[in-house]
Amino acid sequence: MTTLALVDPLDLLGQEVREELERRSGAWSEVLLLTTDEEQVGTISEFARSARLVARCDAEGLHSADLVFVCRPASLVDAKEILPAGAAVIFLGPEAPGDARPTLAWRATPPAAARRWWTSPEPLVVSLSRLLEPLAELGDFDASATVILPASNRGREAMDELFAQTQALLAFEKSPPAEVFGSQLAFNLLPAPTAGPEAGPLVSELLGLPGRVTVQSLQGNAFHGLSISAAVRFAEDPGSEALREALADSSGLEVAQEPERLGPIEVASRSTVLVGDVVPQPGQPGTYWLWAVADNLTGVGAHHAVALSEAVRAL
Asked: pTM score, two decimals?
């Protein structure tokens, strides 16, 4: 049996990870809820319908853990020495230490070194990887994607700020200070300060498609769920039907029954990436537009992180 430690389980993504783990609760004998936030030390929470005390995250609290989820990686980047040497550690997001390898759950391989640290890539990267991987069997291609990120991608404070802005505007009141987004996001669209160009090379590397994926990310005003618009250009045109079949047959993808109505709401709580129709670009044979949505918290966030933990423990 395994001792499981959740670091910062009260964080927005931490709560989703906890719920995902509860559905697999028979796999461990003990669960530790730990926090790097001093204000949360001593908080009573729960796991699998049992009350749990949230303790301070330190070397003493972590020493018995076999599997550790770090739900806010930035909180431990400067204190990673407290992590137990023999544990498998899953960092969620791009702020993990440099020696924690970004890994897709379905492509996990044994670590090259004794340290067993992995990063579950941010939802944008997981979603794009799911969408593009099955296309590789159809021939050489490059892809350019625009990803619209939800407010929840930046945490609970971002969600609260978007809600307060929306509420104020609908009541014809002065909008509150934009401390997270720096500007009004409600009923608006902004450049995203995170993800962006760095995501393309990472997707290319993870899928073995060097230099063929470019990404622009935008900050949307949806609370949950990211959206992807991607132009895929093949060296030799495989045809629309071949693309649809490749997407439909791929694990982790689901083709929408009503693609013309597909939006982030339709993918809520799903573990799969939901794909719309394949649309050829007129006058450019071999170029196709793809539209896809994913649940950034449940699906390609928490679900992927837990799947990665199961994959690395099996190595």
From this structure: 0.93
pLDDT tens digits for range 12-28: 999 999 999 988 877 78
What does the pLDDT look like over 176-226, one tens digit per residue?
999 999 999 999 999 987 666 688 999 999 999 877 899 999 999 999 999
d(CA 32, CA 63) in angstroms, rounded, equals 11
HSE, CB side, 13 Å, CA atoms: give it for residue 182: 7
In the block, residue with structure tokens 């927005």: 12
Residue bearing tokens 């929306």: 166
Does the pLDDT of residue 233 top 90, yes or no? yes
Query: Could you say which architecture CATH assigns to the domain 125-296?
Result: 2-Layer Sandwich (3.30)
CA–CA dist 121, 103 (Å, integer): 7
Of 196, 195, 194, 165, the C-alpha closest to 179 is 165
DSSP, collapsed to helix, strand or coil, labels residue 213 as strand
Contact 253, 282 (CB under 8 A): no
Which has the closest alpha carbon to 223: 145, 295, 128? 295
Joined together, the tokens standing for residue 263 give 């939006």
With a CB cutoff of 8 Å and minimum separation 6, the contacts of 79 are 36
Q: Which residue in 227, 212, 229, 203 sits closest to 146, CA to CA?
A: 229
User: Is pLDDT above 70 for 140?
Assistant: yes
Query: Which pLDDT score is estimated for 196?
Result: 65
Out of 3.40.250.10, 3.50.50.60, 3.40.50.720, 2.40.50.730, the CATH code matching 3-121+302-313 is 3.40.50.720
The partner residues of 232 in beta bridges, in order of sequence, read: 143, 288
Using CA atoms, how far apart are residues 40 and 54, in angstroms rounded to an integer?
Answer: 7
| Per-residue pLDDT reduced to its tens digit, 153-171 | 999 999 999 999 999 999 9
Cβ proximity of 217 and 149 under 8 Å: yes
